[in-house]
């Protein structure tokens, strides 16, 4: 499995939104999780290198 990049942003209605993607596109979106929970699920679903990418 290749690299998985993820980021988060604040939302007025949802507090925090997490989004992850691979070279093939978006692979996971979560509106309710805390970062630790999101990363645990991301690692379970996509066993590759996970990189935080907060570029705007």
By CATH, the superfamily comes out as: Methylated DNA-protein cysteine methyltransferase domain
Q: Level of helix content? A: 10-25%
Biggest pleated-sheet summary:
4 strands, mixed
The CATH architecture can be named as: 2-Layer Sandwich
Return Rg in Å. Answer: 11 Å
Determine the N-to-C terminus distance: 25 Å
Proportion of beta-strand residues: 35-45%
Number of strands: 4
Write the layout of secondary structure elements.
Blueprint: E1 4-11, E2 15-22, E3 25-30, H1 35-45, E4 50-52
Parallel strand pairs: 1-4
Antiparallel strand pairs: 1-2, 2-3
In words, what does this structure look like?
The protein has 56 residues and is α+β, with helices and mostly antiparallel strands. It has a single domain, classed as Methylated DNA-protein cysteine methyltransferase domain (Double Stranded RNA Binding Domain, 2-Layer Sandwich), CATH 3.30.160.70. Helices cover 20% and strands 45% of the residues. The protein is built from 1 helix and 4 strands, in the order βββαβ. It has one helix at 35-45, and strands at residues 4-11, 15-22, 25-30, 50-52. Strands 3-2-1-4 form a 4-stranded mixed β-sheet, covered by helices on one side. The mean pLDDT is 91.
């Amino acid at each position: 499995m290749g690299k998985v990049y993820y980021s988060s942003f604040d939302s007025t209605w949802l507090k925090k939104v997490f989004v992850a993607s691979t070279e093939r596109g978006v692979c996971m979106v979560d509106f309710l999780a805390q970062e630790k929970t999101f990363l645990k699920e991301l690692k379970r679903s996509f066993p590759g290198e996970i990189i935080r990418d907060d570029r705007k």
